[in-house]
Amino acid sequence: MMMDILMYLFETYIHSDAELQVDQDELEDELLRAGFHQKDIYKALHWLEELAALQQTDAHSAIATSAATSVRIYTAQEMERLDTESRGFLMFLEQIKVLTPETREMVIDRVMGLETNEFELDDLKWIILMVLFNVPGNENAYTLMEELLYSKEQGIVH
């Protein structure tokens, strides 16, 4: 599954501060050795390329100028992928300033970019971490998100 590859890459390279300047062929070989399928590897690498491309586009610049009182209306497809709990979690993260309207839209874009029928709140949390890590200027938000994740895993947050 694509999410498994993304999580593997995030934990192995990004989260561990390992050298990320890895040749793509080496990376594909490593993922194949780890037991992932070629088709899924290509999809995951393409997904990551699209995440990087989001930072360089002005597609989300209009979001930054939207009113603070505006409300995000989800499309039917987004509501199919993001259940009520996931949408509520996104709203919560926006309210506590972990996500901005711009990073929220990047998260939704990457969620919709996944080729999967199975998507849960835990998957959303990983995607949020990946987006925050990859967008410059979100170090504090990334740290807050990390703390939320790990404290919940240990049963502190309910």
TrEMBL record:
Say which family it is in: Belongs to the Smg family.
Q: Which gene encodes it?
A: smg
- Name the HAMAP family for this protein: Smg
Native organism is: Vibrio furnissii
The record's annotation in InterPro entries points to: Smg
Protein name as annotated: Protein Smg homolog
